[in-house]
Design brief:
115 residues; 2 helices; 2 domains
């Protein structure tokens, strides 16, 4: 019975955490200050999201799976082929920001070959 009480307490705590997080995201006063992408600090680190753990060490599945183009609001997803502005194809694995807040992706170029 004690194990069940501890398990239920844990589930309630986790649910409360997620509800608080979702409320923060929905708050228009807080949302502009939230960081969803790791940032390439280019050697410096002044915030948590500048660190190498966010940029390289955390598995891709725990990072933001989508990026939105700032001009035309087109959505780009990780592990889905996208076309770059120069016409080349690219398979992004994760998104990150540069210090100027421009969004970049790491992944693989897609090369057409005959079967």
């Amino acid at each position: 019975m004690t194990l069940l009480k501890e398990l239920l307490r844990y589930v309630v705590c986790v649910l409360e955490y997620f509800l608080t997080y979702f409320q923060d995201i929905a708050n228009p006063l807080l949302r502009p200050y939230m960081q969803f992408y790791p940032e390439d600090g280019e050697g410096g680190m002044s915030q948590l999201w500048h660190g190498a753990k966010w940029l390289k060490d955390i598995p891709d599945k725990f990072l933001t799976p989508m990026a939105i183009h700032p001009v035309n609001a087109q959505h780009f997803y990780v592990r889905e082929v996208c076309q770059c502005t120069d016409g080349t194809l690219f398979l992004p694995l994760r998104w990150y920001q540069k210090p100027d807040k421009s969004l970049w992706g790491t992944g693989f170029p897609v090369i057409w070959t005959q079967v």
